User: Fold these one by one.
Assistant:
Number 1:
Amino acid sequence: MNRREERDEERRREAQSALGRVESDSETVGSSSFARVARQTRDHFAAHDKQGESDRIEVWGSRIGRAAGLIFTVALVIYLALAYL
Protein backbone atom coordinates (compact mmCIF):
# COMPACT_ATOMS: atom_id res chain seq x y z
CA MET A 1 0.00 0.00 0.00
CA ASN A 2 1.37 3.39 -0.82
CA ARG A 3 1.22 6.42 1.45
CA ARG A 4 -1.88 7.89 -0.21
CA GLU A 5 -3.88 4.67 0.18
CA GLU A 6 -2.86 4.49 3.83
CA ARG A 7 -4.09 8.04 4.43
CA ASP A 8 -7.35 7.28 2.61
CA GLU A 9 -7.85 4.16 4.72
CA GLU A 10 -7.15 6.09 7.92
CA ARG A 11 -9.61 8.83 6.92
CA ARG A 12 -12.23 6.18 6.09
CA ARG A 13 -11.81 4.59 9.55
CA GLU A 14 -12.07 7.99 11.23
CA ALA A 15 -15.21 8.80 9.24
CA GLN A 16 -16.79 5.45 10.16
CA SER A 17 -15.94 6.05 13.81
CA ALA A 18 -17.45 9.55 13.71
CA LEU A 19 -20.60 8.23 12.05
CA GLY A 20 -20.90 5.54 14.71
CA ARG A 21 -20.63 8.12 17.50
CA VAL A 22 -23.20 10.37 15.83
CA GLU A 23 -25.60 7.45 15.42
CA SER A 24 -25.28 6.39 19.06
CA ASP A 25 -25.66 9.97 20.32
CA SER A 26 -28.68 10.70 18.14
CA GLU A 27 -30.29 7.45 19.26
CA THR A 28 -29.96 8.50 22.89
CA VAL A 29 -31.26 12.01 22.25
CA GLY A 30 -33.88 10.93 19.71
CA SER A 31 -35.67 8.43 21.90
CA SER A 32 -37.87 9.86 24.58
CA SER A 33 -36.75 9.71 28.18
CA PHE A 34 -40.03 8.11 29.20
CA ALA A 35 -39.63 5.27 26.70
CA ARG A 36 -36.03 4.67 27.80
CA VAL A 37 -36.97 4.60 31.50
CA ALA A 38 -39.93 2.31 30.78
CA ARG A 39 -37.66 -0.09 28.87
CA GLN A 40 -35.08 -0.08 31.68
CA THR A 41 -37.79 -0.71 34.28
CA ARG A 42 -39.25 -3.57 32.26
CA ASP A 43 -35.80 -5.12 31.86
CA HIS A 44 -35.11 -4.72 35.58
CA PHE A 45 -38.31 -6.43 36.70
CA ALA A 46 -37.92 -9.17 34.06
CA ALA A 47 -34.41 -9.81 35.45
CA HIS A 48 -32.74 -9.40 32.07
CA ASP A 49 -29.45 -8.83 33.89
CA LYS A 50 -29.73 -12.41 35.19
CA GLN A 51 -30.68 -14.03 31.86
CA GLY A 52 -27.17 -15.35 31.28
CA GLU A 53 -27.26 -17.27 34.54
CA SER A 54 -27.45 -21.03 34.27
CA ASP A 55 -29.50 -21.22 37.47
CA ARG A 56 -33.16 -20.63 36.58
CA ILE A 57 -34.10 -20.50 40.27
CA GLU A 58 -31.89 -17.44 40.73
CA VAL A 59 -33.56 -15.71 37.79
CA TRP A 60 -37.05 -16.43 39.12
CA GLY A 61 -35.96 -15.50 42.64
CA SER A 62 -34.80 -12.12 41.34
CA ARG A 63 -38.09 -11.58 39.55
CA ILE A 64 -40.15 -12.53 42.61
CA GLY A 65 -38.01 -10.41 44.93
CA ARG A 66 -38.22 -7.37 42.70
CA ALA A 67 -42.00 -7.73 42.33
CA ALA A 68 -42.38 -8.16 46.11
CA GLY A 69 -40.28 -5.04 46.67
CA LEU A 70 -42.49 -3.07 44.30
CA ILE A 71 -45.67 -4.29 46.01
CA PHE A 72 -44.23 -3.46 49.44
CA THR A 73 -43.25 0.04 48.30
CA VAL A 74 -46.69 0.77 46.85
CA ALA A 75 -48.40 -0.56 50.00
CA LEU A 76 -46.14 1.55 52.22
CA VAL A 77 -46.84 4.71 50.20
CA ILE A 78 -50.60 4.07 50.39
CA TYR A 79 -50.40 3.40 54.14
CA LEU A 80 -48.38 6.55 54.80
CA ALA A 81 -50.70 8.65 52.64
CA LEU A 82 -53.79 7.40 54.45
CA ALA A 83 -52.23 7.69 57.91
CA TYR A 84 -50.66 11.13 57.61
CA LEU A 85 -52.60 13.08 55.00
Number 2:
Amino acid sequence: MASRGRCGGASAHEDEPRRDEQAEQQAPAPRGPILPPPPPVDYGVFMQGLVQAMQTQTHTQAALQAQLEAQVE
Protein backbone atom coordinates (compact mmCIF):
# COMPACT_ATOMS: atom_id res chain seq x y z
CA MET A 1 0.00 0.00 0.00
CA ALA A 2 2.89 2.34 0.64
CA SER A 3 4.06 1.90 -2.94
CA ARG A 4 0.63 2.95 -4.18
CA GLY A 5 0.82 6.11 -2.10
CA ARG A 6 4.22 6.97 -3.50
CA CYS A 7 3.13 6.22 -7.04
CA GLY A 8 -0.06 8.27 -6.73
CA GLY A 9 1.78 11.08 -5.00
CA ALA A 10 4.50 11.18 -7.61
CA SER A 11 2.03 11.32 -10.50
CA ALA A 12 0.05 14.05 -8.75
CA HIS A 13 3.22 16.11 -8.30
CA GLU A 14 4.20 15.52 -11.90
CA ASP A 15 0.83 16.83 -13.09
CA GLU A 16 1.03 20.10 -11.12
CA PRO A 17 3.88 21.73 -13.08
CA ARG A 18 2.21 20.73 -16.33
CA ARG A 19 -1.03 22.42 -15.27
CA ASP A 20 0.90 25.57 -14.33
CA GLU A 21 2.70 25.61 -17.67
CA GLN A 22 -0.54 25.13 -19.58
CA ALA A 23 -2.21 27.93 -17.62
CA GLU A 24 0.67 30.28 -18.44
CA GLN A 25 0.53 29.37 -22.12
CA GLN A 26 -3.25 29.79 -22.32
CA ALA A 27 -3.35 33.15 -20.54
CA PRO A 28 -3.88 35.92 -23.14
CA ALA A 29 -1.34 38.70 -23.27
CA PRO A 30 -2.73 42.03 -21.99
CA ARG A 31 -3.63 44.37 -24.84
CA GLY A 32 -3.80 48.14 -24.91
CA PRO A 33 -2.59 50.62 -22.33
CA ILE A 34 -2.53 49.66 -18.67
CA LEU A 35 -5.12 51.79 -16.90
CA PRO A 36 -4.45 53.43 -13.53
CA PRO A 37 -6.43 52.15 -10.56
CA PRO A 38 -9.87 53.71 -10.09
CA PRO A 39 -10.22 56.58 -7.63
CA PRO A 40 -11.25 55.72 -4.08
CA VAL A 41 -14.99 55.49 -3.50
CA ASP A 42 -16.66 58.09 -1.30
CA TYR A 43 -19.24 55.89 0.37
CA GLY A 44 -21.04 58.86 1.93
CA VAL A 45 -21.80 60.30 -1.51
CA PHE A 46 -22.66 56.84 -2.79
CA MET A 47 -25.15 56.25 0.03
CA GLN A 48 -26.75 59.68 -0.48
CA GLY A 49 -27.30 58.86 -4.14
CA LEU A 50 -28.68 55.45 -3.27
CA VAL A 51 -31.13 56.90 -0.75
CA GLN A 52 -32.21 59.57 -3.23
CA ALA A 53 -32.81 56.93 -5.91
CA MET A 54 -34.86 54.81 -3.49
CA GLN A 55 -36.95 57.84 -2.46
CA THR A 56 -37.56 58.75 -6.10
CA GLN A 57 -38.63 55.20 -6.82
CA THR A 58 -41.01 55.22 -3.84
CA HIS A 59 -42.59 58.51 -4.94
CA THR A 60 -42.92 57.30 -8.52
CA GLN A 61 -44.50 54.05 -7.37
CA ALA A 62 -46.96 55.94 -5.13
CA ALA A 63 -47.88 58.30 -7.98
CA LEU A 64 -48.46 55.40 -10.36
CA GLN A 65 -50.55 53.58 -7.77
CA ALA A 66 -52.70 56.70 -7.22
CA GLN A 67 -53.10 57.11 -11.00
CA LEU A 68 -54.13 53.48 -11.35
CA GLU A 69 -56.67 53.76 -8.53
CA ALA A 70 -58.09 56.95 -10.09
CA GLN A 71 -58.60 55.12 -13.41
CA VAL A 72 -60.40 52.21 -11.72
CA GLU A 73 -62.89 54.49 -9.93
